């Protein structure tokens, strides 16, 4: 594993996903300061996710055909500057456009980023990709706390201050881009001969995408409405709501790292199934708790269970489409994940009409669906071919001895 470039990509992912995590922390301020309805506020998340879901697979396709490392600095910069402008403008629809552009920037970073993370990871793909994913998760986690503090201090126009990390990261990427591109070309990726001759498995990949979408819906539902739930149901402060969201995601980042190592040891499908199975009872208990301390403690196992399937599913997607890894990355990190954001307006409508508790309660059916979908996931042919070749090599070695 090339640790320097792996760490560079991880930190870049931290900055890119910082702006994805900042948006939910912005919603309570929009609701209180600009008097947006829950549905109007949730539509902003929807606009960011729709733009991402369209553009991310396209960048993935480009990544399969040509090397596009320039999307790393460009994506980070567009994500940060656009989010920074969103709090400065007064017009709702102009704000929605800036937030959508921020989503495009985040989307353009992911396909090439995770593909390079896979390249520099060496043999332990799940571990390498989990580190990359954890960088984004941590950025997502600390973002609500930092965003809330900045907005409490400077008001909505403080979003422009939050664009500074993107500018700094863009400069770092531009400085390192020539060396990054050169080292990528020099890295010897040890791909088995049979992997090159393995056909893409589109049917299991489509089922994996459906599974990812279920997980993304749970994620975006909690991400968008957990701070509001903390404020309006558990009667806590805005700061308390952002801390609750950050707790969930920080724990999730730890879970992502653990899951990557477990997936390399025990297999991707087992880790995915374990995560969804444990999430089912946890969500049922969580929505029936009114004690803020107990609710906070429950965020720990919920975060571990919710994030455990994430990096194994990304790696599994790359194995299902060994000839189109960029597209697989674009879909698993982009389309499937951001399509989970389409649930935000639905939850916003439920919240406006039936309350936030009812909206979050509706999420409990999704991990059950995900379990049944996980049962349909097959072992990738790339792994089967690799195991067959290793068995032949082992038998030849024994015969030679």
Automatic annotation (TrEMBL):
GO terms for molecular function: transmembrane transporter activity. Residues 5-382 form the Major facilitator superfamily (MFS) profile domain. InterPro entries: MFS, MFS_dom, MFS_trans_sf. Pfam families: MFS_1 (PF07690). It is a multi-pass membrane protein. The keyword Transport applies. GO terms for cellular component: plasma membrane. PROSITE patterns: MFS (PS50850). It comes from the Bacteria. CDD domains: MFS_FsR. Its main location: membrane. Keywords: Membrane, Transmembrane, Transmembrane helix, Transport. The chain crosses the membrane at residues 36-55, 67-86, 92-111, 160-177, 212-231, 243-259, 271-287, 293-315, 327-350, 356-379. It is found in: Cell membrane. This is Major facilitator superfamily (MFS) profile domain-containing protein.
